[in-house]
């Protein structure tokens, strides 16, 4: 009886906290994420598309690093919700469709949106095709711009990676003025961004540009129960060389001599390979660990092309943006506005070279075959001149 009659206040205090801060995403009927303009610039990044790609709902299909995967797309930042493809993600500005940066396309490059005028970004990850059409199957990303910016805002920043490369720079200025007791506003935003080129050669420990590729390599003839592959570093390819090479074989493959002269073959049955040095002389390869007997054209820690010494990790970027907005509220039902912009984006990336293969193997000065002779005495320019004279 004593426990039943205990003071109900002994259970502790109940604290209720209220806030006047609007949180529309909490009452939305679809899952939504909201980021403010400060959230986008707090990381120090100069490309808002790359910052948005850090959200779990977005996939980095067309980030700065991935924009080099196709011809003509370097520097683009296109948003891809849930990895369903950029054509299924609708990008709006102030709730309206925005002009594209690509002729014949409708996807919006986020590099064309002025950073300092962004008030917030609403990301709706639920399918909205019933409202907006088939290009909103994955969801909608809406950039809400500042409507009544008044004053002057200047920004300048620079950054560099911990490897002391990939420098980034950003300078911007935004100027706005309210008038007619707040019924009208004009604003101008100017912005310049620059990011330096980062190539495979700048990250040898990652790409193996000079030391050799890191990959799963066939090391023995596979059988039904054992694929015979191992993860190796320092992998080079026999068939490719930046200076050009000469393969002493009489078949159609680097894997065997094809019945050629015995002196042109190695004891493992593979043809000898000679590469041109920078001075034009020809010398025999260091074969390293030769995987040709296993059915692969690669070697470990030998000579030959890495195929990764050319290529881009992050393209260079120069971005010039001028944006002018103005509005005047004549009445509650009539609010004319003006939006004008100039955007120029310059991007550069480095691709991998192509290789020409095949052709006759040349001859010595007396017209005899070069295969089987002392190939080290041939110099690249001399050999090419002989081929031209024979042609």
Helix content: under 10%
Give the strand order of the largest sheet, numbering strands 1, 2, ... along the chain: 1-4-5-2-3
Structural class comes to: mainly beta
DSSP summary, beta strand count: 19
* Poorly predicted ranges: 363-391
Total number of domains = 2
Write down the overall mean pLDDT. Answer: 82
Tally of contiguous helical segments: 5
CATH topology of the largest domain: Ferric Hydroxamate Uptake Protein, Chain A, domain 1
Query: How much β-strand is present in the residues?
Result: 25-35%
Shape estimate: elongated
Q: What is this structure, in a nutshell?
A:
With 391 residues, the chain is mainly beta. Helices cover 7% and strands 31% of the residues.
Task: Please describe what this structure looks like.
The chain is 7% helix and 31% strand. It has helices at 37-41, 48-52, 129-132, 204-207, 380-390; strands at 32-36, 89-93, 96-97, 118-124, 139-145, 151-159, 168-179, 184-195, 198-199, 213-218, 229-237, 245-248, 272-276, 282-284, 289-290, 298-300, 312-314, 316-328, 337-348. The radius of gyration is 32 Å and the shape is elongated. Residues 363-391 have low confidence and may be disordered. With 391 residues, it is mainly β. The protein has two domains: 28-199 and 315-348, Ferric Hydroxamate Uptake Protein, Chain A, domain 1 (Beta Complex), CATH 2.170.130.10; 210-307 and 359-390, no CATH class. The strands form five sheets. The chain has a five-stranded mixed β-sheet with strand order 1-4-5-2-3. It has a five-stranded antiparallel β-sheet with strand order 6-7-8-18-19, with no helix packed on it. It contains five helices and 19 strands. A hairpin with a 7-residue loop joins β15 and β16 (298-300). The longest helix has 11 residues, at 380-390.
